[in-house]
C-alpha cells in the first residue's frame, strides 16, 4: 500500500505517469473508474481550494466523499487523532485525506490505517499535491523542457509548506530554485540562493512563484501592515516588465499584496490554470493510490 506524505514518495517515472493521467482528466469527460470507492476528508485547518479540489476530483472519478466536521468530531471531546483515524479506518474507507497544523502528523497515522493516507498539508512541512500541480503547470508550459529553468519562490518562505515541497520537487526535474524574501521570512536550511529583492535576480528567471504572507504563523509582528510588506514584494506589472516569466501562486491570493490586480489579469499569470490542473492532478493521485 502506498501513501502520499511528501513528493519523494513518488519516483520521477511515477510523477510523469500522473501527468499522463492528469492530461486525460483535463478533458473532464465522464469517468467512473472509482465508482463504489469511499474517500474521507479530515481537515483540521481551514481550506477551500485544496478540500474542494480533492472532493471534485474524487466525484469526477465516480467516488463518494465523506467530509468529516472536525469541530464536532470526537477529537473535540478528548479523543486522540490516532484513535479518530483508527475508528475511521475501521469503517473501511478507500482513502483518507488529511490536513493538520502539526508537522509530520500524517506520516505517523500511516500505521493506524489499511488504506492510503494523502497529506493535504501538514504545518510548515509539506503540501505534496500542491507541488505536483505546480510542477505539472510548469512542465506542460515548457513542453517538458524544464532542465535549467530558474524558479524564484517569493514571500513568506519560512512558514510555507508549499515552498518546502517545491524546493524538494522542482530540482528533481532539472530546475534551479531560489528564494526571495525579507530577512524575517528567510528560509534557513539547504543550500539555496536567497535574495532580499526580486530585482537582484529577475532577469535570470523563468518562473515566479508568489506566496501568501502567513502572518498567523508567526509569533511576533514583523510588518505594521500587509501594505508595508507589499511595497517590496508584491508582483506588479512594473516588476515584471515585458519579461517572459510564468507567474504562479498556490492561493488564496492577497490582492495587491502578493500579486497586483493588473498582474492577475495578465496572460503570464497562471493562477486559475493551477486550480484547474489541481483537480486533474488530485484525480490522478487518487486513482494511483486507490487502484494501485
From TrEMBL:
<protein>
    <recommendedName>
        <fullName>Aspartate carbamoyltransferase</fullName>
        <ecNumber>2.1.3.2</ecNumber>
    </recommendedName>
</protein>
<feature type="binding site">
    <location>
        <position position="161"/>
    </location>
    <ligand>
        <name>L-aspartate</name>
    </ligand>
</feature>
<dbReference type="Pfam" id="PF00185">
    <property type="entry name" value="OTCace"/>
</dbReference>
<feature type="binding site">
    <location>
        <position position="50"/>
    </location>
    <ligand>
        <name>carbamoyl phosphate</name>
    </ligand>
</feature>
<dbReference type="GO" id="GO:0004070">
    <property type="term" value="F:aspartate carbamoyltransferase activity"/>
</dbReference>
<comment type="similarity">
    <text>Belongs to the aspartate/ornithine carbamoyltransferase superfamily. ATCase family.</text>
</comment>
<feature type="binding site">
    <location>
        <position position="130"/>
    </location>
    <ligand>
        <name>carbamoyl phosphate</name>
    </ligand>
</feature>
<feature type="binding site">
    <location>
        <position position="251"/>
    </location>
    <ligand>
        <name>carbamoyl phosphate</name>
    </ligand>
</feature>
<dbReference type="InterPro" id="IPR006132">
    <property type="entry name" value="Asp/Orn_carbamoyltranf_P-bd"/>
</dbReference>
<dbReference type="InterPro" id="IPR036901">
    <property type="entry name" value="Asp/Orn_carbamoylTrfase_sf"/>
</dbReference>
<feature type="binding site">
    <location>
        <position position="99"/>
    </location>
    <ligand>
        <name>carbamoyl phosphate</name>
    </ligand>
</feature>
<feature type="binding site">
    <location>
        <position position="49"/>
    </location>
    <ligand>
        <name>carbamoyl phosphate</name>
    </ligand>
</feature>
<feature type="binding site">
    <location>
        <position position="212"/>
    </location>
    <ligand>
        <name>L-aspartate</name>
    </ligand>
</feature>
<keyword id="KW-0808">Transferase</keyword>
<dbReference type="InterPro" id="IPR006131">
    <property type="entry name" value="Asp_carbamoyltransf_Asp/Orn-bd"/>
</dbReference>
<comment type="subunit">
    <text>Heterododecamer (2C3:3R2) of six catalytic PyrB chains organized as two trimers (C3), and six regulatory PyrI chains organized as three dimers (R2).</text>
</comment>
<feature type="binding site">
    <location>
        <position position="127"/>
    </location>
    <ligand>
        <name>carbamoyl phosphate</name>
    </ligand>
</feature>
<dbReference type="Pfam" id="PF02729">
    <property type="entry name" value="OTCace_N"/>
</dbReference>
<feature type="binding site">
    <location>
        <position position="252"/>
    </location>
    <ligand>
        <name>carbamoyl phosphate</name>
    </ligand>
</feature>
<comment type="pathway">
    <text>Pyrimidine metabolism; UMP biosynthesis via de novo pathway; (S)-dihydroorotate from bicarbonate: step 2/3.</text>
</comment>
<dbReference type="GO" id="GO:0005829">
    <property type="term" value="C:cytosol"/>
</dbReference>
<feature type="binding site">
    <location>
        <position position="77"/>
    </location>
    <ligand>
        <name>L-aspartate</name>
    </ligand>
</feature>
<keyword id="KW-0665">Pyrimidine biosynthesis</keyword>
<dbReference type="GO" id="GO:0006520">
    <property type="term" value="P:amino acid metabolic process"/>
</dbReference>
<dbReference type="InterPro" id="IPR002082">
    <property type="entry name" value="Asp_carbamoyltransf"/>
</dbReference>
<dbReference type="GO" id="GO:0006207">
    <property type="term" value="P:'de novo' pyrimidine nucleobase biosynthetic process"/>
</dbReference>
<dbReference type="InterPro" id="IPR006130">
    <property type="entry name" value="Asp/Orn_carbamoylTrfase"/>
</dbReference>
<dbReference type="GO" id="GO:0044205">
    <property type="term" value="P:'de novo' UMP biosynthetic process"/>
</dbReference>
<dbReference type="GO" id="GO:0016597">
    <property type="term" value="F:amino acid binding"/>
</dbReference>
<comment type="function">
    <text>Catalyzes the condensation of carbamoyl phosphate and aspartate to form carbamoyl aspartate and inorganic phosphate, the committed step in the de novo pyrimidine nucleotide biosynthesis pathway.</text>
</comment>
